[in-house]
Write a structure and sequence with these properties.
With 270 residues, the protein is mostly helical. The protein has helices spanning 7-17, 27-39, 44-56, 60-73, 80-90, 94-107, 112-124, 128-141, 147-154, 160-174, 178-190, 194-207, 212-224, 228-243, 247-250, 253-266. The longest helix has 16 residues, at 228-243.
Length: 270
């Protein structure tokens, strides 16, 4: 007896009762895909696209139903395993996600998106070395990687020095990204490299139109490092930067609070 799949019936019900009414920006895309599926119901790519659309809006049951239908129609369809792996990952099924992504990468070792996702699955499963290797491979393939990839990779190193080198590689490639500099600054301080951390702060301040907050950070770093006189000088410089602001900026509540804190710190004996 021929086995009859229940997936098409499930999909039919789901498309009638889809919960994406709260997302009007995707209604047109969903309507277009529904219409195309009505015309060509055996096109696996359409189910993958619709599943990805549902997944982006965390409609997990609908996404899974669409992926299952695509798998019935074309088990080896490109993108299907990666899409299902992303769904596994989003729902905390890390081992399943990693297994699917390994199959994806066996077929296409240069799939950068799959490498990044498998790196994250490795990280969630506690296999940091494998995660770092996948991030390395992905970063070598991506023309314009996001700073977040370098931050994620740096967070996997047990050694602050290795993490710092990872961040500096990102800064060398991407230029002066504040999020990378701030993480590197914290690592420099943890390694006792106060002057190197101060140099990073100075670079960040040099890129900013508003200097007072960065000068306050400079003073805090110097104070933590046991250099109170230099710390007070940095706080005084921050106050001078505030004094140079136009009235409408100088008189905002945040700036007034910062000025009061700086005044207290400049007069402190500690």
């Amino acid at each position: 007896m021929r086995r009859v799949s229940a997936v098409p019936a499930v999909l039919a019900a789901l498309t009638c009762t889809g919960p994406l009414d709260a997302h009007p920006e995707i209604e047109a895309a969903l309507s277009r895909l529904n219409a195309q599926i009505t015309v060509t119901p055996a096109d696996a790519s359409l189910y993958v696209q619709r599943g990805e659309l549902y997944a982006r809006h965390e409609a997990w049951v609908m996404a899974e139903a669409n992926y299952l239908r695509a798998a019935e129609l074309a088990p080896d369809f490109p993108r299907l395993n990666r899409a299902r792996a992303a769904l596994d990952f989003a729902n905390g099924r890390m081992a399943a996600a990693r297994a699917r992504l390994t199959r994806v990468l066996a077929a296409d070792p240069k799939d950068a998106e799959a490498l990044v996702l498998r790196a994250r699955a490795h990280a969630a499963l506690g296999t940091a070395a494998a995660a770092i290797a996948d991030f390395n491979a992905a970063l070598a393939l991506i023309a314009s990687p996001s700073p977040e990839l370098y931050l994620e990779r740096a967070g996997l190193y047990s050694s602050p020095g290795d993490a710092l080198r990872s961040l500096d590689e990102g800064l060398s490639r991407l230029g002066p990204v504040v999020t990378l500099e701030l993480r590197a600054l914290a690592l420099e301080e943890s390694l006792g490299r106060t002057d190197a951390a101060l140099a990073r702060l100075d670079r960040i301040a040099g890129q900013s139109e508003r200097k007072e907050s960065w000068l306050k950070r400079r003073g805090d770093l110097l104070a933590r490092s046991g250099r109170p006189a230099e710390a007070r000088a940095a706080y005084a410089a921050a106050l001078a930067a505030i004094a140079a602001l136009p009235d409408w900026l100088r008189e905002t509540p945040d700036t007034v609070r910062l000025a009061a804190e700086l005044t207290r710190l400049t007069s402190s004996d500690s």
